[in-house]
Amino acid sequence: GNVQNLFIGMDHIRTPKVDEVLLQSKFSTKKTHRGSLYITPTHLIFHDQSVGRETWLLHTHILQVETLPLNTKGSPLKIVYKTFRSFTFIISRDRECQDIYDTLLHFSKPTSYDNMYAFHYTPQQKRFQRESGWSIFDHQKEFARMGIPNDYWCYSALNENYEMCQTYPDWLYVPLGVTDDVIQGSAKFRSRMRLPALSYFHQETQAALCRCSQPLAGMGKRSSDDESFLEAIARANPNKGYMYVVDTRPMINAMANKATGKGYENTNFYNKIEFRFLGIHNIHVMRDCLHKMIDVVSNPSLSMSEFLSGLESSNWLKHIRSILETSIFIAEALAEQGRSVLVHCSDGWDRTAQTCSVATLLIDPYYRTMHGFQVLITKEWLAFGHKFSDRCGHLDAGTRETSPVFLQFLEVIWQLQCQFPCSFQFNEKLLVDLSEHTISCQFGTFLGNCERERKELELSSRTYSFWGYVWEHISEYLNIMYRPMTKYTEGMLHPDTSPQRIQFWRGMYNHHDHTVLPRQNTHSQLAVVVRETETWRKERSIIEQVTCFACVVTPTANTNLQTQMTDKWRWTCGWTGKHTVRQR
Length: 584
Description:
Elements: E1 17-24, E2 32-39, E3 43-48, E4 53-58, E5 62-67, E6 75-81, E7 86-91, H1 94-108, H2 139-145, E8 153-156, E9 172-175, H3 180-188, E10 197-201, E11 208-211, H4 224-235, E12 243-247, H5 251-258, E13 273-277, H6 283-297, H7 304-314, H8 316-335, E14 341-344, H9 351-363, H10 370-383, H11 388-392, H12 405-419, H13 428-440, H14 451-456, H15 459-462, H16 466-472, H17 474-477, H18 506-509, H19 522-553, H20 555-573
Parallel strand pairs: 11-14, 12-13, 12-14
Antiparallel strand pairs: 1-2, 1-7, 2-3, 3-4, 5-6, 6-7, 8-9, 10-11
């Protein structure tokens, strides 16, 4: 980034550099690396003197900082990161350790958006423009791709300037013929005014996927406008006279919400609906499960049986499977049964976003391309108001609202990549980097809790977009096994949800553990082979062209040049006389 930005907030750094610091190995307390610590307003930098390597750690990635009891080597400082890394630095002087502790606490918990890294970040050499990536999604183009508007669905301007629902996008698509009064009446009967709105339209079956929040049904309350609105959604599908209403929560949770004046749809009041509970747990359960799982997978001292039993008892993979199964139900209803589906959870911005986005990705190959995946996230997560800042803990507001909702979505996509390796244009690295940059605050893409907040913060003119960064480094994120316009990429995906097919994602949760081998997955290793093969082909082509040119010039030149090129080829390929070893 811009060097000038490093001076912002320097007054909070009492000790900018500490020498003779020991970095304790995660897997052995006896093994240490000696080096120097540098602190900037954005990063903690450890320079390892033995290998001359620097490790840059973002302050916004910090989850927890704690000082440990003094030992014979000095004062230990343990830092746990949201990216599933942890470091223990041993600092000889206790005062310097306390200074660093206080500094990291300050920079890791910004109290306002203006203090965030995104507003001070500038890419090195300005390799991409500030406006790059901000126009990745255009709702008119995206819904036109689905065939909307048509004889059954139309655009509504009721939420322009966010006057009706502040956490929805300023565009909405609703059934044709529904009056503004009915739309507004339905919004008033839904939690936080998050009324039913079109998310995806299946052109072949004419089935629609809509999303909303729970109704304010309480103990027997009803709304004629909401009932009319849902009936209009069912009628908008000419091939089926009724639709599914999917409540992604466990039934007991939904029933408990009735006591607070909320709840779920009473089928006695609604026509043309079939109601289903599909049992995905809430943000608090998911947060606790992640903590349990991380405690297990980051503990190198566990035996095999302890590791496996701990992973199972965390229930993390069970919840991943539950999200995938719910998404499959929705996808099959739309694409195979031809039935429209209305999805909600409590407020319609967590489990609803997960299942709607995964279901449409299963159905539509476009969302499995690089551009389509960015459009999908922008539409279902950013535009429809997933609370990224609250869920990722961007601001210093406690941990009650934090939860790995988006991380779970990314993990479900990775599970699909494992089963369908040729069906995705993007690779695992994109998913890992997405996870890291939703919490890094380096880009403005994921700041704020809704579209309205992002516009008020003027992020598109004041910060850089993560999507712009991706397109600038596109070669790093492409899946070399992707096969467009083939049986691998066309049509709907039908994943296997049997327990044997749900895997632990080591590439995410042990991504930075260099001692856990092999670190690369098969796809990454194959990508290296392909790149090296292509490099060898280019080098061979150059050698052949130069040799042929020399043959034309003169026999003497030919002999000398061939000798030189042979030496060049031997050096480039690492020729040993017996076999060729490509040097990395």
